Please model this.
Amino acid sequence: MSAESGTVGRGEPGLVGPGEPGTVRPGEPGTVHPGEPGTLRPGEPGTVRPGGRTARVRAAVLRAAGDVLAEEGFAHLDLADVARRAEVGKTTVYRRWGSVTGLVADLLSDMAEQSSPRTETGSVRGDLRANAALVRRTLADPRQGALFRAVIAAATCDVRTAEALRRFYDVRVSEWVPCVEEGVARGELPVGTDAAVVVRAVSAPLYYSLLTVGVVPDEGAAVRAAEGAFAAAVAGVYVVGE
Model:
């Protein structure tokens, strides 16, 4: 076990490989065959609910994958290299994630789960400013910003990565949707305002700046993004169904 990461390395107790005691061989009772109900496909987030040592292995692998993405980009992400960095057997990584895109999907799922919860300031304007500040801090972070750039670039040419990225943002947007809905209930915004569109409107200019001109948004840019989205929402720009 690594003293730094707490991960389980090759040959250590607890990692059961093919043919070792405790494995289920094809055709034995309890085997789930491909295509049958309940089949768990490698690389799909949520196929395993890790706990204990399995959770530590998953954390080490996802951390290593994030490091590679931030340092070298998606093109250099390799399961064998990730296993080496995480001090985990290659068989474990291939069996659990199955492919690079499966690993990225799980990484994004984990990032969504670990993201900071929304801030409640008592006003929709304050909440949108808090959201913009959070997005800006994420994009300005040397590791997180580079990681997002790598994943977004990969999503433009890889369908599974694009799907995983959409799921990530769906989770994050849904976390902040209540702040807009509560603003509508308080009379701060018009009835019928599309809350999800308002939340996306806050972060859109920040990502645009980063991805098109390579400029990391500063605090002023975050304030302008939030104020612009708020003003448009107050004016009824995001009202739907009329």
Summary: The chain has two domains: 53-112, 117-234. The two ends are 61 Å apart (CA to CA). The mean pLDDT is 81. DSSP finds nine helices and no strands in the chain.
